[in-house]
Amino acid sequence: MSVPPTAAVDDQPAMLIETDLPSRLDRLPWGRFHTLIVVALGVTWLLDGLEVTLAGAVASALKTSPALRFSNADVGLAGSAYIAGAVLGALGFGWLTDRLGRRRLFFITLTLYLAATAATALSWNLMSFMLFRFLTGAGIGGEYTAINSTIQEFTPARVRGWTDLGINGTFWVGAGLGAAGSLVLLDPHLLPSDWGWRACFFIGAVLALGILPMRIWIPESPRWLLTHGDERDARTIVEGIETRFRDDGHPLADDALTRLRLRARDHTPLREVFHTLFNVHRRRSLVGLTLMTAQAFFYNAIFFTYALVLTDFYHVPGGDIGWYLLPFALGNFLGPLVLGRLFDVIGRRKMIAGTYAMSAILLTLSGYLFEQQLLTVVTQTVAWMVIFFFASAAASSAYLTVSESFPLEIRALAIAVFYAFGTALGGIVGPAFFGRLIDTHQRSEVFSGYLVGSGLMLAAALVAAIWGVDAERKSLEHVAAPLSSVADEEDGVVGTDEKRADRAART
């Protein structure tokens, strides 16, 4: 079954564009422009890590706050509000990002986050706190779709995997900042109890305020402009980027550039979006859903119950949890940074399957040692550091997979669908399941939960090994031909190798 091309506005024939601009972006060496992209846009992951960590760190302070006096149930509701905001924000802003453009949305989403997290610090009761946490989550969810799309579309193909994994790993820089900040700001000797938690939420607002001006210098994605018929602006942007590189002494060869033919469209109907995701690219969707589900359960189930394991089984004081979170965050950050390059050199399929399988094996081993009471609080922390060195790279590769495996016109919404699914599952099922196991105070019960997580990761490793996409060092247009690309027989155009490869991968 095929889907007819989207009609142009006023039923006029859509503009036919022949261009080499995507190839020109892929041939660029790494430069200051790419570093600006990474810093100004990649901060999203850091902010999410900060928010997630702060939510746990300030829980006790919210319960003792003279203004709020939250119960445990209230703290849980606030966490659910953040997750719901992230899911709905990803879906809503993802749709808008594909329709209105990357640049416009990454200003809107960061501004929303900045205002909402600052407002959270000024909350006066449960309803206001939940509302502001919902809006904070919506800003973060929207950031993921707009930011990941933009980074993918500007990064040279040969380093796209390493770049994407490295950026995703900064989530744990944010987690470390949140842990360190909470240790200081929640100290009653430094700030009154009702001021400390408020100061914690201002950390994200201050960071966002510093990053927002940097985004002024980031242009719209030329790839997005091309599919919407704005070839002139797309060419101007690419030529401007090339001029910067030439001025910095980088020679740019013009040979062997692949040309692409597109029919411009103003939008992609939702019918075509879902047809593409679940019919044309159904195997890729299966891979994406499996990877996201497994890592979400594995990650969130353990991370959100990290403190409970330390307090209930190792009797660590609640005020000292942050010290154990710092080495955990370090292992999570180093994993994608160190292993990321291998995803471009060895390949996506092998590395994704390998990191998922290694995470499962190591968790099973450490879980057995935990069940047999052979670990101390120090060796348990070291075990988690090693496990999540691999698991962090695995989780990051899931986001990489869903952001590069689908056509340009639906990239942001595809990211949103899989992000929302993973976030909802990881934020609801995983922590609740493990929380009930920990409440039994039986190590054997907790170990059974670890085995479930390991089983999911092994299943995901198998799916990736069989049906994963070998996207390393390939242009996005090669990995998934744009929906607006001209068919082989249309206008007498001969099909490219990229289109033939894409058709082979669609079944």
Automatic annotation (TrEMBL):
GO molecular function: carboxylic acid transmembrane transporter activity
Matching Gene3D superfamilies: MFS general substrate transporter like domains
Entry's transmembrane regions: 33-55, 75-96, 105-127, 195-218, 286-309, 321-339, 351-370, 382-400, 412-434, 446-469
PROSITE patterns: MFS
Annotated spans, Disordered: 485-507
Compositional bias segments (type: Basic and acidic residues): 496-507
Main location: membrane
Subcellular compartments: Membrane
Membrane topology: Multi-pass membrane protein
SUPFAM superfamilies (alphabetical): MFS general substrate transporter (SSF103473)
Domain Major facilitator superfamily (MFS) profile per the UniProt entry, residue ranges: 37-472
Coiled coil: none
GO cellular component: plasma membrane
Keywords: Membrane, Transmembrane, Transmembrane helix
Record flagged with keyword Ubl conjugation: no
Top-level taxon of origin: Bacteria
Alphabetical list of Pfam families matching this protein: Sugar_tr
Protein name listed in UniProt: Major facilitator superfamily MFS_1
Taxonomic source organism: Paraburkholderia atlantica
Lineage, opening ranks: Bacteria, Pseudomonadati, Pseudomonadota, Betaproteobacteria, Burkholderiales
